[in-house]
Fold:
Amino acid sequence: MPTTPSERLKAAGIELPPPPAPAGAYSPVVVHDRLGFVSGQIVLEAGAVARPGLVDRDVPADVAKDLARRATLQALSAIQAALGSIDRVRRFYRVAVYVATSPGFENPHQVANGATELLIELFGNEGRPARIAIGVHSLPLNAPIEVEYCFATW
Structure:
């Protein structure tokens, strides 16, 4: 039975994508005194936003939920690049999921489950963060979701 997050990832047949490169004047991950922050992650494919537009109008909620999961994989890739291994994550404290929504969409919390369900799958209770799911008017590059993370390291 897999006992570490990296072993659980491997057992699930999931490979991390390449670490994201910053698209501006920021660091993908900052760690200080065992507290880490991952910059907001949007999902790109071939250099362009995967499924651009507003959730519920242009992007179905279930697709947006999968994009939140994929953004979490990108974040884990950034963490691995910064720390050498995702197994150095002790606890996820907070996850913020921003969902670009059409007017009247009331389910950004369901989209956010894509991010946090994966963390719980890989890290157990230590992956169950405090969370905020926010519906917004727009996100960078017309992305439908953006996710940021706060975590503790060993």
